[in-house]
Amino acid sequence: MSTRITERPIRLDDPDALRRWSLRCHAAGMTVGIVPTMGALHAGHLSLVERALAECDRVVVSIFVNPAQFGPGEDFERYPRTPDSDLELLRGLGVHAVFLPTVAAMYPETPPVRLQVAGDLGTTLEGAHRPGHFDGVALVVAKLLISSRAERAYFGNKDAQQSVVVTRLARALDTGVQVVVCPVVRDRDGLALSSRNAYLEADERRRALAIPGGLADAARLFDAGERSAAALVGAVRASLDRVAAEIDYITVVDAVSLQPVEKAGAGCEILVAARIGRTRLIDALRLGLDDAPVVPG
Ligand code: AMP
Q1: Is the whole model's pTM more than 0.90, yes or no?
Q2: Measured from the CB, is residue 181 less than 6 Å from ligand 1?
């Protein structure tokens, strides 16, 4: 009988412990997958974990709210932290190890080196609205890839730009890590799952449905043959305008280069960032690939 379900994940508290655990796995001939998260786990995170468990012999999930990727005035302090229920969920899935470091364990001193995401990639879209964000992401992901020595690392396409940054970082730093990007998981009402959805009041949550609603409208247009990026963006904008969301950006980009396109095609995605009340939400839809969000009428 399998004991996998009841096995507790090993708890690792600092990068050295993570590295030693990974070395033991490798010494036993096993491959290692890592799923980096900031916790407050939901089914979107769990889809990454399940994919990692299917593809790797040993899986570590990291839970770390990384101060380096939050700007001044952002939600670092109030970001939801639910380690007990996170551990319960991961135990249920049969995850082998959980890396739960403190800030002091990850950053015992002001980092004496910095990583900078070069060019447009770090400064457009999310980077334009959250200056320095991707430099902070790059630093923590580089540290996680180095200490975990994983063969594969799993990220979600909800954070589409982050997935591109991380894929390019893993390659540029010769980590040998294969970055696996997984599809967006949505709630039954179509809203992309996010730890930040917990901030939404009931009325805001209803308004937030304008994001997947707009993406569904755009996907329908695309499926009906519309290829003008401006028309697809217009459909999403109209939906967001109906709920008076504050739009940071809506754009159609090439999914690999993240460069905006005028004519949409397969391999393009629509990226959205908008504020509903105080809550900033992002979403992404791959045209011709992802199922459009199903938003109950
Ligand atoms: P976070 O905890 O928000 O930093 O997310 C950790 C990882 O989970 C990132 O790679 C995210 O892109 C991914 N993720 C978050 N929400 C979803 C979702 N709804 N569907 C798929 N992946 C997600």
Answers
A1: yes
A2: no
